[in-house]
Amino acid sequence: MVFMASAPGAPEIEITHNWDPEEFAPPSRSMGHLAYAVDDIFAKATELRDAGIEILRPPRDGKMMFVKSPDGISVEILQKGEPLEAREPWASMPNVGSW
Hints:
Radius of gyration: 14 Å
Number of strands: 5
Structural class: alpha+beta
């Protein structure tokens, strides 16, 4: 994994390399997914949901969720630091689709 930022303190992206010799189904472009860390994963989940973005893997654990970009690339959203305490509606929300 590589974590990149444009400047100190700027948002970081995580770039992962899939070591297994696997075929990537469209729309993938030879990568697994991008990951971004946020200050409050529940606030970000609410913001994305309210903007009409489907939460595919809700942040039930207060640490991680998945959505997809408009072109179908998986995007992982991570809680900075320690996970937040679980809360509703996220704690009991099921996974949907694939990510």
